[in-house]
């Protein structure tokens, strides 16, 4: 009754082609945007930004990127951590080499560099498929992490082997470095997240997205109806790596500030983002957000209830988290392969009729 | 002989031994993949779990003692007895069979007919679950494993090579034993698959599920059996690696070592797993020896993957894999 399409008439092509064709969806979306931009920055404090909002926003970008590759194009990648590292190190090199350029450009350029690297490591996807490809992308993961660890040029010959973000400002407000106010870091990431989500949403419902989905559903058949697999697969790798690179750059510059590559961008990060995509829902932008929110909130929740509430040791809570995440992955794959996004779709279907039976 | 060549020979020998251990892990993958089409990422964690269980039983640890202590505020850690190695291995085997049954019944029966990549992701979930489960059950501290395998430099080889080349080779006794055990294991697995009733049934299931079902082979039984076999292989691998470098989290990373071996050898071939393991073992040691020091060292982390990646571009099915035929 409250969520309905009836009476929502379109009188122009522009209206028909809107990102959110249903009025209720549109209003909800505007409401979320207004809340995110105009309400949250005024009420959040340091803890909320660092424990919840920043990781959620950044992982959302990464999950959207990976979802394009895995959910839309069907090419499973386990190299997300490595690509995030590329974004982080590209951003670091750009920040230190061109300090006078605005950091906005650095982050976007870091995404561009990652896209090129992604295409390079996506080349084998033209020959190999399925988990052969998944394993092949592990090569990217290990090689890139090793590269950033061992070649001193990447970390500017610093003694610790770490990279740390220098202070950079936008309109005179610092967004990286130690002086950053919580709301500034939050807004900076939020802008990137919203723009990335918009681009991804529109790419996936346009020609590019349909080509990716055709390749995912059956690549040979797609080739026969005229989808060029080379361009479709490599463009998916490029777009996906672009987003993942931006996420990596933000993760390093805004969220962590200083990064040791093996720790921050190891294989576990690849799995974490993949889990977000699976739990959230393969082939859904909303799912990427839902998955990221879920896996960011779960450890916070467990830590607060088990360690602070019940007084359990931290390592026990960490192990329990492993079990719960692993178990959830299996449960979702068995019961709801399309993840939280599908649950949301089902809920909307129910809301259409509610509270009437028919 | 020039010094470089002698050192090279030593490196190759050590590489071969490391390769045998890689092959051992890869074997577990091949077994499950052949019989059920599941690419079991959790194989490495199964090795870790098996090793943890074995040490836990030998030391007489109380399972879940951390959890029990945290919930009830008690202070229990050990039962206070020590179990002999052989008995502990048997008990661990029982645990692995129970695990195989649980995995099959609770997870993969519900995922029959799903795409291979979904099954693969399910095994990643299983790997995470088992890792947390193993740590909660037995604690996450580094444990020493001692089941009576010999360790240390082999003096006979050292003397022998010293007399010939004036340079004694360093070969670990443990590696020699591991090679022998792995060879025996591979041989018995091949015999089992080729000449026993169950082995034949296993190959039939691998060939065609429905045809196997229609001649009266129980798929459930075969799958549990295969997962148990893989658990057994994992136990052996866990003992070897655990004795070598202690039972700890990094043990589960041997799965990541075995993946390129599989890609090189082909997912469906037992000889492929062995040849691939040897190739990668020798290749990465030689590469590190010859080039690694020039470009920063620790190339073992990625060399195998890059080798397999380049290889796959030219031969997507691996060395011995079945030819991939695609139809619409």
From TrEMBL, chain A:
InterPro entries: ABC_transp_permease (IPR001851), LivM-like (IPR043428)
Keyword check for Cytoplasm: no
A Pfam family: BPD_transp_2
Keyword Cell membrane (UniProt): yes
Superkingdom: Bacteria
Parts of the chain that traverse the membrane: 27-44, 50-69, 76-95, 101-123, 130-148, 183-200, 236-259, 271-296, 316-335
GO cellular component: plasma membrane
GO molecular function: branched-chain amino acid transmembrane transporter activity
Localization in the cell: Cell membrane
Keywords, comma-separated and alphabetical: Cell membrane, Membrane, Transmembrane, Transmembrane helix
Membrane topology, as annotated: Multi-pass membrane protein
CDD domains on file: TM_PBP1_LivM_like
Protein name per Swiss-Prot or TrEMBL: Amino acid/amide ABC transporter membrane protein 2, HAAT family
Organism from which the protein derives: Roseovarius pacificus
Automatic annotation (TrEMBL), chain B:
Lineage: Bacteria, Pseudomonadati, Pseudomonadota, Alphaproteobacteria, Rhodobacterales
Family the UniProt entry places it in: Belongs to the binding-protein-dependent transport system permease family. LivHM subfamily.
Origin: domain of life: Bacteria
GO biological process, one term: amino acid transport
Coiled-coil region list: none
GO molecular function, one term: transmembrane transporter activity
Transmembrane segments: 12-33, 45-64, 84-108, 117-138, 176-196, 217-241, 261-282, 289-314
Membrane topology field: Multi-pass membrane protein
Descriptive protein name: Amino acid/amide ABC transporter membrane protein 1, HAAT family
Source species: Roseovarius pacificus
Pfam families with a match to the protein in the record: BPD_transp_2 (PF02653)
Gene Ontology cellular component annotations, sorted alphabetically: plasma membrane
Keyword Lipid metabolism attached: no
Cell compartment(s), UniProt: Cell membrane
This protein's UniProt keywords: Amino-acid transport, Cell membrane, Membrane, Transmembrane, Transmembrane helix, Transport
Statement: the UniProt record of this protein carries the keyword Cell membrane: yes
PANTHER family in the cross-refs: ABC TRANSPORTER PERMEASE PROTEIN (PTHR11795:SF451), BRANCHED-CHAIN AMINO ACID TRANSPORT SYSTEM PERMEASE PROTEIN LIVH (PTHR11795)
